[in-house]
Design brief:
This protein is α/β, with parallel strands linked by helices. It is 49% helix and 14% strand. The protein folds into two domains: 232 residues, Glycerol-3-phosphate (1)-acyltransferase; 143 residues, no CATH class. It has 16 helices and twelve strands. The strands form three sheets. It has a seven-stranded mixed beta sheet with strand order 1-7-6-2-5-3-4. The longest helix has 21 residues.
Amino acid sequence: MHNSNGIIYEFFLLCFKLASIIMRHRAHLKGKEYLKHIPELVIFAPTHDSYFEVPSLSKVYYALKPRPHFVIMAKKDFLSGNYLSSNFGRKNKLAYYIFYFLDRTGLPKAFFKKMKLIDIPRPFIEDFTNKEAMKSEIYAQMEKLKRSIHNGFSTLIFPEGTTWGFGGLKNLRSGIFQLVDSTYRHFAKKLYILPINVKVDRCMIGKKDIFINVGKPVFILDEKDRFLAKVSEILKDLHTITFSQIASAYLQRISAAVEEIDTALSLKKEEIASQLDAIINDIIALVKEGRLPNIDEYLIDSNYRHKKLKRFLKFCLKKGYISRINGTYIINTKKVLASFPIKTYRKENPIGFSANELLSINYNVVAPLYERYCTIIRSFASHHV
């Protein structure tokens, strides 16, 4: 551990914090108690759905006591020279120009090197013609990472290894297991995992709430498959249920019911609000019973829920998921249920992605909450046309 990371180091972390403000993040950090007096050797292991939410992870850094140096296991484009502008400035012009200017100075690349960033190829994504060369490079970079850990550096790894997915926790890559196992076997030291689940209330117009849930540091020593299964279970238990997930699953489930009967469906806003209120109350009860993980705690407030619904409907109107005619909403079921490749699914169908986030937690518990409304639609949809 080091008491000071230096002025340049702190400056760039401040830039990430400012970027989260410019990008209209509203970050909520839970589990601060686990960021005080963390183990000397620790892997920070956050979930990773997109680069959008990464600036808000600065909130974790500023809550750390003491603040350690990091070695970051990252993909190769970190050292490309245009990493910030290409990943964090796509939807906000001000953020883009700030990051573009920073990229052109060459300081980010120098900063990443100062952070001892280790860029590792991802064979499941990147195209390599020479597999032996790829294996050799991965081995060499992993050895660097192991030596850094042995020398007392903390490590940040995105254990899913990619942002590609259909919604919900992705399969964990073996890198996190290799580091924990190797550190214990070769150096007789315990390398703890600090699990962090990050969820964005993404299907909203305006500010995005980002829920960062930090778990207790844990040391796991087991064979690879059981190790990864245990870490996955811990990360799932830290999942935060958002309004976007609940409302998106509502659209997805009733769209499937409408497709079954092959007819149009119109809904009044009051109907949608009433049905979502009932579903949210059911979910809150299941969270209290321990059958589902965490939920946005503000959803207990009906005024907060209705403000969220207003912003959600605006998002859906803008993206073409619904249309409004004579004060009622018509669902574009084809768009809601549209399928895309894993690489582009989150961007092409954010409603489907958010719905899958919720359903992936525990399908058998969540899906029945929507079934009563699907049954009504199947029976009476013709009266709503």
